[in-house]
């Protein structure tokens, strides 16, 4: 299964002085803010997050950069979305499947992607991630939330 966290240490980012404080009682999705596919995924999460559980930040933000550094991820070529949920960090297909587990049905069915055996799931994710700009495009700037959504986006 592809649901293993990046780190087994619960809340390890709390003791890292370089990671800005954030409300970790709610799941946080860190995404490539200029990637059309990634921003589309965030819009999909917003649409399916009926209870407004999720909060978001771009990988390009101060918080996103700090979390990527904390988990030894590339801070320039963002090759994964990062989900922080219940003190655990998840990347690649694990982030996707654990994120969709928090949706109501029928969207929760997408969490079955966690049944794709590793390393097949990571190979598939990596293939898409490495070609995401050529397949889906790249925005000039990060997604800018408006109205009620603005409070769910951390900077």
From TrEMBL:
Q: Which InterPro entries match?
A: DCC1-like, DCC_oxidoreductase
A Pfam family in this protein? DCC1-like
Check the record and name the PANTHER family matching this protein.
Answer: DUF393 DOMAIN-CONTAINING PROTEIN, THIOL-DISULFIDE OXIDOREDUCTASE DCC
Record-given protein name: Thiol-disulfide oxidoreductase DCC family protein
